[in-house]
Amino acid sequence: MKILIVEDEPLIASDLEITLKEAEYTVVGIAHSGTKALDMISNRNPEMVLLDISLKGHISGIEIAKVLQSKSIPFIYVTSYSDKLTIELAVATLPYGYIIKPFRDRDIITSIEIAMHRYQSEIKKEFPTLKVMNEKLRLEFSPREYEVLHLLWEGKSNTEISSKIILSVNTVKFHISRIFQKLDVNSRSAAMVKVREIM
Questions:
Q1: What is the pTM of this model?
Q2: What is the domain count for the chain?
């Protein structure tokens, strides 16, 4: 398996590389910044990414995670952040794992094995159709709400959704509030969990 390491601390990045190579994984690169990470994601076709949340520069790990999500590349956060807000933002990007530094080598390998097993199970499932979704809900989605939900699933922000389907941001927010109501949730992360249950 080809793995990309996105980590701005050289010592930690080196430790991760050694751990992965000892476990016979292929390290396709180490990115010390968000900009470099995006370049390597495009050019080196990783099958898995180990991703730090806090990176030097103006592109955060959370932003990179959204790109990975849109490309259906599984990723695991490896971070020193465990506060409520950071975890909430991270969970909304649907990571395949969340490892707190300092970590043991075995934590990394076990997380990768679990993540890949889960990923292989999930790629066999497609995003549910509007018909399937509505059969499982008490309150049905409109075609527009379904479209917005699909874009949420792809990790798009309100602004990105607004641009994609030519709606004002306020209208997008209205649709999202209706989606939350119909799914009986109060956050993006909870909505994504509910969709996974439906899948």
A1: 0.62
A2: 2
- 95 and 44 in a common domain: yes
**3-state SS of the chain?**
CEEEEECCCHHHHHHHHHHHHHCCCEEEEEECEHHHHHHHHHHHCCCEEEECCCCECCCCHHHHHHHHHHCCCCEEEEECCCCHHHHHHHHCCCCCCEEECCCCHHHHHHHHHHHHHHHHHHCCCCCCCHHHHHHCCCCCCCHHHHHHHHHHHCCCCHHHHHHHHCCCHHHHHHHHHHHHHHHCCCCHHHHHHHHHHHC
Domain with 77 in it: 2-122
Residue 10 sits in the same domain as residue 71: yes
pLDDT in tens, 70-116: 888 899 999 887 778 878 888 888 899 999 888 888 999 999 989 88
One domain for residues 79 and 26: yes
